[in-house]
Design a protein that fits this description.
Elements (H helix, E strand, L loop, with lengths): L5 H9 L8 H4 L19 E5 L2 E4 H8 L11 H24 L6 H27 L2 H14 L4 E10 L2 H12 L4 H8 L11 E6 L5 H9 L9 E3 L2 E12 L5 H27 L23
Antiparallel strand pairs: 1-2, 3-4, 3-6, 5-6
């Protein structure tokens, strides 16, 4: 991917990306009058020429999709101006490379062929995935996934972690006598991840915690304080705040995951189908593929 050249970055400053603290940056801007957005230009509209070679609006659109040219925090008008400057630099450099006969190098030809194939495949997979990832397919996968989910119990708990059992017993006694758990946790807990939150661990399922801690927490009633519990991390005093059955995530909460899964599956299935229908011949010069690791149930 191309990187932003110094000229490109200088162009950004010239177009008014002011440094914080400058007088102009601090001056209040007048509210612009509401005007209708101009119609998008045709992809063939010429926006600049370099030694007679045109740069079109379509060329800018391709550059705008390049992740290497992402400009967070820059408004669209400025970004378009910066992209024009970048494309001018790119065209100048490409013309110089042509004169230097870079394109005649066999290595360059191989790279060009590789990236052409890669772009073709990427575009093809993206197009086919868009056909397959429909609202109906997303909803069907969500319903199937939710139906297969087993109800899980969750606990919302707090804990205090200390180094030894004697200290844990003293803390448990203080808490059972009525002292505020969050206050005592802030004073005594050795767990940096939860100490500032009053020992709060949020909601968790049993498998997310180490066995002695999880066993104790899931046996307790809400509102109770545990006796000291030992794990490999030290000694814990636990308070269970609430218990519940883990709620099923909504479709909106899972939509991104569903879409990503369907996209990957569609593309993987397509590649598998293409391989099955292709005549593939590997010569003796081809490196051997690594051996496939045995599945868990195949290991002795």
């Amino acid at each position: 991917m191309p990187t932003l050249s110094p000229l490109w970055r200088n162009g950004a400053l010239a177009l008014g990306l002011l440094l914080p603290g400058s007088a102009l940056a601090q001056a209040p801007a007048a509210a612009p009058a509401a005007t209708p957005a101009p119609a998008a230009p045709s992809p063939d509209t010429v926006v600049a020429k370099v030694n007679g070679a045109p740069i079109t609006a379509g060329d800018l659109a391709v550059a705008a999709d390049d992740p290497a040219l992402s400009l967070p925090g820059v408004d669209e008008a400025q970004k378009k101006g910066l992209l024009v400057d970048y494309m001018v630099d790119l065209k100048i450099g490409a013309q110089a490379a042509e004169k230097a006969k870079i394109a005649d190098n066999p290595d360059f030809a191989r790279k060009l062929a590789y990236f052409r194939d890669k772009l073709l495949l990427d575009e093809y997979l993206e197009r086919e995935a868009k056909k397959a990832v429909t609202p109906q397919a997303e909803r069907a996968l969500y319903d199937e996934t939710v139906k297969a989910m087993k109800p899980e119990e969750e606990v919302h708990a707090r804990h205090i972690l200390v180094d030894n059992e004697a200290e844990a017993k003293k803390i448990a006694a203080r808490l059972k006598a009525g002292e505020d758990f969050a206050k005592v946790a802030a004073e005594t807990s050795k767990d940096p991840g939860s100490k500032a939150e009053g020992g709060d661990l949020g909601w968790f399922t049993k498998e997310r915690m180490v066995a002695p801690f999880a066993d104790a927490a899931f046996k307790m009633e809400a509102g109770k304080i545990s006796d000291p519990v030992k794990t490999q991390f030290g000694w814990h005093v636990i308070k269970v705040e609430e218990k519940r059955t883990k709620p099923v995530p909504s479709f909106d909460e899972m939509k991104e995951q569903v879409e990503a899964y369907l996209t990957r599956k569609t593309q993987q299935d397509l590649i598998t189908k293409l391989r099955e229908g292709a005549k593939i011949e590997k010569t003796a010069a081809a490196p051997a593929a690594p051996a496939t690791a045995p599945k868990a149930d195949e290991k002795k």
